[in-house]
Amino acid sequence: MIDRRSFLRKSAIAGTTLGIASCTPSALRIAEKQLNIQYSSLYLPKLRISLDRVVKETVGLRPYRTIGPRIEKEELGSKTLVHNYGHGGSGWSLSWGSAELAANLVDESWSPKAPLASTAANTLVLPTSTAQKVAVIGCGVIGLTTARTLQRRGYEVTIYTKEMAPDITSSKATGTWSPTHRLIDSDKKTDTFFEQFKQMHQTSFLTYQNMLGLGDKVVWTDTYDVRQDLRAHGDFSRDDKYTLMRVLPKSQLLNKKEHPFKAPTVYRSTSMVFNIPSLLKMYTNDFLRFGGTVKIQEFKRMEDFDALPEKYIVNCTGIGAKEITGDEYLTPISGQLAFVIPQQEVNYRIATKNAYTINRKDGIVVGGTHKMGSWDTTPSREDTERMVLAIKEVADAMYT
Question: 306, 315 in Cβ contact below 8 A?
Fold first, then answer.
């Protein structure tokens, strides 16, 4: 039986060389090498990276909560307060599912005087004349997705925030699908946590799939994990309950003919990348377009919420919740990123010891720091040099 791919490949090579005055073996090899790009990752475009191509450095504080995200409500005098914070390094990944859970708690607290309009399952639409007002505190990805989710259910929403993009922590995130990254201490996982995680995970993943094709806000990309040892590769999570929720293809150990890297161990995996600036802009524009209001205001303690005119408040302040609520389980994990001049043709990621890249539209993002308990947001040149040079060593050794 003739292999279809082999047949098409040879036919394309013949078509490519047709018309060449002298079809030399050299010309045929060049045509075949060009066509191989479509079928193999051996010919990945080479990453150009060096310290003089770094144009920006940022440090973000992941809001890590040792017992997992806080999505619960409490009564605050005459007001109902819903908390939605503490997602560690998984905020972007779990934002839409977390917003759904928080919105459900608002729904439970509201007793409409008029009948609710019929709509899809698990979604409430309040009659326009009696639309309830809700305050969302925080304008990061958790605050914006929560505000949009509430709007979809018919609520009139105002966002109160100290800062907006690009000055918020969400603007300083890596922007990859990482739903279990720095989410909870391993010994704090309970059945209740897993049930909550499952809901957040499923809702968020499907929401991001619906964004595919809307420009390049959400894209799929391959990651090449390049190692100088034969270590076992960590795949998603070792916890069986996490594994049951797998939505990505398994990582593959590549042979030397399947990649361009000079290393004994190379794994390839596939995941999503979020182009953060364009997504934050889209979320904000959508919120405003559907009647939302943004007010600049800082909150330093729970009592500050009492001054708001809204009866229902959703607290999406991220690491800021540490000062406001005094949450003893919340702690920052600082992560530094270095932005290298973007390369449009580079549509893959590299991961190696202590550093990784993310191919975003605003640059080749280089990361790799996790400083537990650090509140310092001043970029370290030493960290930038270490991360960039680690990736440069891998990139420079790529076959040409």
Answer: no
